[in-house]
Design a protein that fits this description.
With about 80 residues, the protein is an alpha+beta fold. Helices cover about 30% and strands about 10% of the residues.
């Protein structure tokens, strides 16, 4: 899941604690990604996660844009 590691590389990372049996902390997901794809230049700007999508959307000018974020935007630890 992208969100498990991507929130560790912006200028102000989230709490790295995760509750999974196979990982101890979110930075481990970043390490896995770097093992496969090379070093991720952290910190990244907040638009990094979108990659080329904004430019492609601007070029194709769709009538609507839908985003499935699959995670909550919150500061709550609950």
């Amino acid at each position: 899941m992208t969100g498990r590691g991507i929130d560790q590389i912006p200028p102000f990372p989230c709490d790295p604690a995760i509750h999974e049996p196979y990982m101890q902390s979110a930075p481990e997901y970043v390490e896995l990604a770097e093992t496969v794809h090379g070093r991720i230049p952290a910190p990244v700007d907040f638009g990094y996660i979108w990659g080329d999508a904004p430019d492609i959307l601007d070029q194709t000018a769709p009538d609507a844009r839908t985003i499935n974020q699959e995670t909550a935007v919150t500061v709550s630890d609950d």
